[in-house]
Amino acid sequence: MSVSVSTHVLDTAAGKPAAGVRVELARSGEVVASGATDGDGRIAELALDLEPGRYELVFWPPSPFFTRVELEVELGDGHHHIPLLVSPFGCASYRGS
What is the pTM of this model? Predict the structure, then answer.
């Protein structure tokens, strides 16, 4: 089995993608992949060829309130797209396609 992860960050207050957002993927506290969002707010290939299991996806978004957002996710076989929507005082995520 093989797991891959991509992500993007949307600044809903500005109504545009958030470029330059640092993102890390960790497993049991150890960083296994990291990157920064591009001009479209995306990291197309944050991680490839991972083992299925529980991971922590950590974002440092452009918000005066949320300085760090961590999602704990259970990743099964296949590709997982995990976006973050962020505004100055709210954030949300979902499993994308």
Answer: 0.92
